[in-house]
Structures are given as structure tokens and as C-alpha cells.
Amino acid sequence: MISRHNLTPLFSLLCIAVLLPVFGGCNSDSRDQRSREEKTRDEVAKATERTKPAIEKARREIDDAAHDAASKELPG
Question: How would DSSP label each residue in 59-70?
Fold first, then answer.
């Protein structure tokens, strides 16, 4: 089963992806905009890399649970 602890990095990634553009502001020239966009991409990429282990662990747990459930349903 996926625990709340396993979802925390994913939630953090989603928050970063949503909040960074919001705090970016609208009144700036294109150079500043490009710089912010690049920074946002870099931070989202880093957050994604940090969440990969938790996502992989959750995937393995789901896969194991599915195999266990399937094996219990087989006539034996």
C-alpha cells in the first residue's frame, strides 16, 4: 500500500511546478522571463529526480500487491 510518506516528494514536485510560475510575476522583459523559465525548468528537473526513488518504490509495492492478489485468486 502506498503510504503518505511515499507521496510527499510527489506532492512537493507538484507544488513547485504550480507555485513557481505564480510567483514569477508578469512585469518583466523577455530576458528576465527566459531566465526565470530556465530556473523553473532546472528546479522541476531536480525535484523530479528527487521523487523518482519514491515513485519507483511505490510502483514496486503496487506491483507486489497486484501479484499477491492475483495469486490468492487462483484456484489452488
Answer: HHHHHHHHHHHH
Helix axes 4-24, 30-73, angle to 10 degrees: 160
Work out the pLDDT band at 9, boundaries 50, 70, 90: confident
Q: In 1-76, which ranges are E strands?
A: none
Which three cell numbers, joined as nine digits, stand for 22?
505564480
Cα dihedral 40, 46, 52, 53 sign: negative
Read off the pLDDT of residues 16-54 as tens digits, 9 standing for 90 and up.
Answer: 777 777 666 555 578 888 999 999 999 999 999 999 999
Q: What is the pTM of this model?
A: 0.45
